[in-house]
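Late entry, written up from scratch paper. The run itself happened at the end of the previous shift, but nothing got recorded in the book at the time, so transcribing now.
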Amino acid sequence: MKRIVITRHGGPDVLQVQESPDPKPRAGEVLIRVKAAGLNFADVLARKGLYPDAPSTPCTVGYEVAGVVEAAGSAAEETWLQQDVIALTRFNGQSDVAVVPVSQVFAKPAGLSFELAASIPVNYLTAWQLLVAMGGLQAHESVLIHNAGGGVGLAALDIAVHIGATTIGTASPGKHAFLRERGLQHPIDYRTGDWGPVVQRITQGKGVDLITDPIGGGHFRKSYKHLRSTGRLGMFGISTVADGLGGKLALVKMALQTPLFHPFGLMNSNKGVFGVNMGHLWHEQEKVQLWTDAILKGYAEGWIRPHVDKVFRFEQAADAHRHMENRGNTGKVVLVP
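Output as recorded:
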């Protein structure tokens, strides 16, 4: 098989395409011929040595694929043979062959391309957990989506628009027109000014009901400050560690800047905080199945609208990482073998 390998921690050029023997599915597993694999910011952090869950180098990462089932581990899984599928992978997804437990495999909708299918699992499941499962967003409420032009941000926008909530989002100005077309009511340019006063004007000084924050560090404190009473802060990333100082120093700096939320303070302010990490939900397959079914139903109904920003060949993996690390993408970056 052909796979993208992080040979060591460092810049994008540490990525190499290498050949390895094809894996064999065991009972309860299927082998998927991968047509497209998703790239996530966690993969960028893994390459830089800043993602604690990543395997030791050399390694292949990747949490999501779309492709065709070519082999089954036992007779029980043979009903999947030759089916077009979407799957969640616990690393090793950025390969042209992936072995996956059947509990993490879902039938691909007929009208959906492999590239668009690979853009769904991580982004939309994360957004669903943030807004619906844990955020409890309601039609009469407001949501502030940080990095609204990213993969999770765009997925969260689809869900928030469907719910009917007031949508606010931070993004670079070049993405505002596209985000307005997707339903973002209040885009904010976070690069040229402080987004806090703008949020206060939009909410008439009340604050936001739900904020999704993938930035981390001291940014969590600022987001919390702009919550309305009964507001919730959903934390799901630490992208700030990819900026400025590198390596362990970036992690230390981020940790020192991260606020500690005390229960008494939360009670007195009537606010809530919660964290989301899809990579730690492998033991909750029933929930993931329910959420995925709801997302695919939303696609069939037309309100889940996956968007691929750019497709890169495996041999262009370094360029794909640079594109994402520079915040150049609007929506999903996809890798194809």
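The chain has a mean pLDDT of 95.
(Scratch paper discarded after transcription.)
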